[in-house]
Every structure is written in structure tokens, then in C-alpha cells.
Fold:
Amino acid sequence: MKNRFYSLSRLFVDSVHNKRNLALLLSLALLVMASSSFVYAQTEAPTVTVIDQPTFTKNGDPIQSGLTLTLTSTTINVCSHNGTNFYNILGDNAASLRAKLDNEANFGPNGAYGDYDFNYIDVGDEFTKQTILDKECNIWFSGFESDNDYTPEELTALQNWVTETNGQVVAGCDTQENDPVCALLDFSVTTDTDTHGFLTNTGATNPLNCNGALGSNSRLEMAGGKGAYFSGPGVTTENVLAVHETGTDDNNKPIVIYTGNYFLTADINMIQTGGTKVTLSDGPDVTNNNDILAMNAFSALADASVGKEICTSVEPAPPSPSEPTCDCVAQTDPSASADQGVFAGFAPVSIYSLDNGSIEDSISDTALKTTTGTSHGGPTPTADRFGNENGALLFDGVDDYIETNEGSNKKPLTFSVWFRADDIAGEHSIVDSDVSGGYGHSLIIGYDDPAKTDDTPKDGSLDVQYHNGFWDTNVTIEPGKWYQAFVTYGDEMRLYLGAQGQPMTLVAQQP
Structure:
């Protein structure tokens, strides 16, 4: 930084100033905001009603001593055709999904997603509508099944059961050869190379987001390798819940659809394990966006199957620990509101996923896309914080950086970045936008200000530059640990920092 100046304002992810070898892993999202403040709200625990020793009488007579009242959860039977097929509900790939549905913290009397008890049933082959009725199925689960797995009579039986009982169906429709349920409903499936997507709306009526935990920039992973999307007469503006990252406001690449009875995903691994990327996490806990999606979806489908309005059983989620909310005093979009998700009040300018080495702006709004950035020195793809192969970029600490075409020395501005430094000795730029003869908008580890002779940089110290100076946060970065930083420039400069799995904290604030 001391020896490099630019006549044009530009933002780049850079480790070129490090004098020693640095392995720096980044996943970058650049956002512009209308308010200069972030607020991470600590919400109180929900009020729980405790019932102790209830007493009942009939015609005024006391009940018999010792009678016990047992309160039970509503049972939801999830059925599959040849259910032990590894993509169906009793298959190996659904093991983590079942573990999450069976976790009492998620579903049960005090479950965050509703008081339901899920039961899993294999209805076998050559089923009829009466078979489904006899099994008392609430939800039908069709994983990655071949079109040849169903006879025409079975598909008719399934459709009649849905029509006559308000039955709910989950179907994975990954390819044209593996979409029997979707084809029945006139949805076509096209495969492509997209790997993730985003919600079309973040309101509580979206079955993927009943508890409001997902925002407009919450990334929903697909299995990797290749993706798919829906088209055809069945697609409507109202039933598209999520689109590919390259989709537009016209929702031309839907990846999740809900018709009121049929919940369709263009990749069953969005709610299962088994792909080349981490989608649903292993085990019973809810730890990522796909987990949240799956639990919300099953809560909504369970609601519908027992005659309730969808999304009436979940508890509202607190703000995500990794994505702070804004105070929304002023907004770039006057129609936006604080209940639209964790990024309410923000208008994304550029988003760089860095997946598979891509430095293309992946923002869904094509009108705002900037031209593709330029890679210098040769940063290489590597695993991200979730272990997804090629989900981040590795910078060598010598001459690797990425230059974007997004102007960054302006206000208001926010940039966000995930990073991990394997070596914290010396000076390392994470996000840097130098201006000639002055400070830019930058986030740096161990900044050494050449204009201050009494400045003693500390290895691992996290520092922020702004137009009239820089700020040492007194935070020391730990080697090998993932962090997310939000830096806001408005009436004040603010830095919010959180390690992976920890709440965001305001660590620097300067007029």
C-alpha cells in the first residue's frame, strides 16, 4: 500500500503488500447501503406456557385420583414410493433430513418449526390412491426418481389423492429423465451449470422462509457439478420461490416452486446430502441456509396437510449471527421494509461469489451488473468455510489480487467479506481501494501508516481506512480462523466483525 497509488479509484481484493507468504481465503460480497448503521438485535427467549396438574370434571364430579393427561404432537406421515431408494425419504441421502425433522429443538412441543412428529412410511410399489389413504399419508416425498419408476396408473393415483385430500408433495426434478411428478404437472426441467440461487421474496408467506431467517442475499446451495431450472406452462409469478443466481426479475430460471400442493425443487440435494457441495448439513442441527429452507418447507407443508394456513407453526427467527440487520432509518428502496429479511434496506451493487475461480459479478439484477473483474497474479480456487470445494480463492501473499470495476471511494457504501489469514505477520490488504496521496476505503491486517512515524503496527491487528484517516480496532485476527466483516461508510465509519458461528459485533466506530 505504501508504494502503490492509483489515479483512478478502484476496489480490489489484494494481498500484494504482504512481505511474507500469506494464504488468504476470501468470499466477497459488495453492498451499497442507504443507512450507515447496522444493528444486531438480541431477542428475548419466547414466552412458554407451562401447564401443571390440570384438573377436569364431568357434570361437576371430581375426576378419579391419579388420572394423567398426556399432550401429544400432531403426527405427520411422510410417504415414499419405494421409500428406501437412497434419494427417497427412508434412503441414505435423506438421513440428515430425517435427523433434523426428528430433532425436538426443530419439531415438537417446544420446536422452533412447529409441534409436529414426523413418521416415515414406505408404501412400496404398485400403489393406488387407496394405498396412500390407508397409510394416512400427509406428505408424499419423491426424490431423484426415474420417470420409469412410476406407472401412469400410479401417477394418476397420486394426483387424485392430492386433489381429493389436499395432500402435499415434495418432488426432486433434477433432469428430464428424472422428473415424473414435474412432468405430470407440465413443468419442464433444463440442466445448466449454475450452482446456487436466491429467494424471489423474503416475506413470511414464502414457505422457504416461514421464520424470516433468510434474506434476499442468503445463498441457497445446489449439489454442484450441474444445476437445473424449471420452465413450461406450470410456471407462474406466484409459484416461483427461488431462482438461479443468473436468473432475473422475470424469474426466468426458477429452482424451487410451490403450487399450494406440490413443492418442487430442480435439485433434490438442496434438501438432502450427497452432492459434491455442502447443501444440507450433516446431523440434526440447523446450521446453514439450506437447513433453514428445508425446515421451513416441511413446517409449511405439514401446516397445509392438516388444514392450517402455511407458516403458522414456526417461531420468528432472531437476526442471523452472520448477517447483521440495518436500522432502516433511510432506504434506497422506499418500498423495502424491515421484515423483508436480514438485508432489508440494502441495495446490492455487486456480489462476487468466487465459486470455481469466477470473478464475475453474480448479482441477480442484470441492470446493476458490473463488468467482470480482472485477476492478477493467479489466485487459485480452494475450499470455502463450509468445506465446499472451489468455493473461495487462495491468494499467495506475493502478487495475487482481484481488481473489480466497481467504484468504491464514495458514500454511502458497505462492503462485506469472508476471510481467513493463515499468516498474520506483516501487512495484508483484504479489501483495498487506494487513492493517490490519501486514504481509501480499505480493510487491512497490520496496517503501517507511512505518514505517522509513531505508528507501530501490530501483527494481526485489524485496521480500517477511511477518507480522513485509519482506525486500529484493537482486534487481533487469529491465524486459520474464518471471519466475516461488514464495513460501512456513511455519516460514520463502522466495522462489524464476527467469527464463523459467532454473533456480529461492532468493533470500530469513527466519525
Remarks:
- The first strand starts at residue 12 and ends at 14.
- The longest helix spans residues 289-305.
- The chain has two domains: 12-37+326-510, 74-305.
